[in-house]
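If you are new to this repository, start here. Below is one unmodified record pulled from the training split, so you can see the exact layout before writing a loader.
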Amino acid sequence: MIEVVVGNMLKVMKSGRPIIKHSEAFKKIRHGDYDNFIKIINRPIPPIVIYNNGVIKNSYTSQDEDFDFAGLICSGPSLIKFHKDCLTEYGTIKDENITDDIFEKMVLFELSIRMHANNSKLLNIKDVLEVAINKLSGFKGLNNEDTIQLHNGRIFINGVKRNITKFPSWNEGIIEFQKAYEILVTNKLTIF
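And here is the target side for that same chain:
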């Protein structure tokens, strides 16, 4: 669900429409701040059983205590409401340069990097994606070429957010992004 919801909002950004009404919630979910996203949208947290270091509990506390994946699961009802609100506000957008599949992979790219870095206790709350890539690459021992390619993926996503391609064409940017995404897959750094 998250890749569809945030992917649609990336399409809104690329279209040049200002995101004012939902900007804070969008920022929180895009950066993987599930606790504050849930607080902003204010939907009930679904029942969940969590096992952590030999302890079983039947409620979600926070992503700091229960890790990011639990936060992502618990944000489901809030994501559904957020998606409905955004569709009402912005409608469904069809982009002429980028497929929905690529928009959804862009979401998984950023969230995967942040989730793996957060779960390894590498990030501060305000770390930007560039810093997250550098910290995660160092921690996982990725070579310099892979790190540079991950940054090319980040540069592509930043261009999409501003509707300015940082590559000779959108197609060339998509190729570079897909190479970056494949590095995450190869190194088992995706979230699904």
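Two things worth knowing about this chain: The first helix runs from residue 2 to 15. The chain has two domains: 2-90, 100-186.
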